[in-house]
Amino acid sequence: MAKIESKTKSVKYINSIDKVKVLSAKELKSLEKVCNIYSFRANDYYLNLIDWANENDPIKRIIIPDENEIDDNGNLDACNEKAITVAPGVQHKYKHTALLLCNETCGGFCRYCFRKRLFMDNNAEVALDTTAGIQYIKNHSQITNVLLTGGDPLLLSTLRLESIIKDLHQIEHVKIIRIGTKMTSFNPMRITEDDALFRMLRKYSTPEKRIYIMTHFDHPNELTKEAIDAIHTLNDAGVTLCNQCPILKGVNDDPNILAELYNKLAFNGCTPYYAFQCRPTAGNKPYAVPITRAYYLFEESKKYASGTAIRAKYVMSHATGKVEIIGVDEKHIYIKYHRAQNTDRIGKVFVYKRDDNAYWLDDLEPVY
């Protein structure tokens, strides 16, 4: 396996595809066209997880561009998050939950990212100054949990992250603070080598106000010794860990791989939470799996996983709500609203004609 050279103990970030010297000149030339549209970012730790001799390596699929991305001219805001943006950096879609977009970069840019628009020029959706956002949350007592996202909040300094968490912790009606992160995959040393982060999480994750870390592991190969150490460190800090990831073509669209991922997560104290349908964001089509196939492989994976590992739900985050795919038969696809803007839909089952080429709810024809 080829290695990306790292001359320092700290992780070295790479923001240009031509810095990935393992790639040939021909590959670099074809991928530069993609990177001119959709940004590239990685680091030496994560790139070293790739078996460069394997053309279909799953980690490579996650982080290295695919030239077919530019053939998909879909919507950059596929779920219309603009419509639910209510204050600088704040999205409020569901009654009890608010999202606070507090950082505009990540430890790496997943090629299938549904918020890749944030990494483009002229983005103004992220609020690095969270004052107005926190005031909005303070003014809306129905909000009981807040998700810090972006971008990746764990790329903020611990001091800055603590200031945000402290402000939220002081709001009486906020009972849960969630941190969405892929740093456990991209750079687990951010967690294991920062004692201040550990102390801060222990301080603010209390029985009355719990901190949840929403990890993002897509494939078992991401669960290195360093990553598992990070999971254990977070568990020791008193936070609750849940994992969510999309079902991705060429990465985890295999029931054995998905089961292995879920088992390893559960064995190490990180609960499988959501398996997402890949959102139809511009550039994402090369990574998407049709709904019918994704449903069957997700259900098949449960045969190979322990009881604690099969608690994930297969859902899509549609503009109208979080839709759970609960069944497929010869003629129909059955969905249920797990969450919805229109609360009358929550818990109700809807039936659509089965279409094995459908990738999204909008592709399906309703029956009733």
Summed up:
This protein has helices spanning 25-35, 44-47, 58-63, 131-139, 158-169, 183-186, 189-192, 195-204, 225-236, 255-267, 291-301; strands at 13-14, 42-43, 85-87, 90-94, 97-101, 145-149, 176-180, 210-215, 240-247, 271-277, 313-318, 321-328, 332-340, 349-353. The chain is an alpha/beta fold and 368 residues long. The strands form two sheets. Strands 3-4-5-6-7-8-9-10-11-12-13-14 form a twelve-stranded mixed β-sheet. The chain has a two-stranded antiparallel sheet with strand order 1-2.
Task: Provide keyphrases for this structure.
single chain; 368 residues; alpha/beta; TIM Barrel; twelve-stranded mixed beta sheet; disordered N terminus
Structure notes:
There is one protein chain. With 368 residues, this protein is α/β, with parallel strands linked by helices. The protein folds into two domains: 13-71, no CATH class; 81-363, TIM Barrel, CATH 3.20.20.70. Helix content is 26%, strand content 21%. It contains eleven helices and 14 strands. The strands form two sheets. A twelve-stranded mixed β-sheet has the order 3-4-5-6-7-8-9-10-11-12-13-14. Strands 1-2 form a two-stranded antiparallel ribbon. Helix 5 (158-169) packs parallel to helix 8 (195-204) and helix 10 crosses helix 11 (291-301). The protein starts with 12 loop residues before the first strand and ends in a 15-residue tail after the last strand.
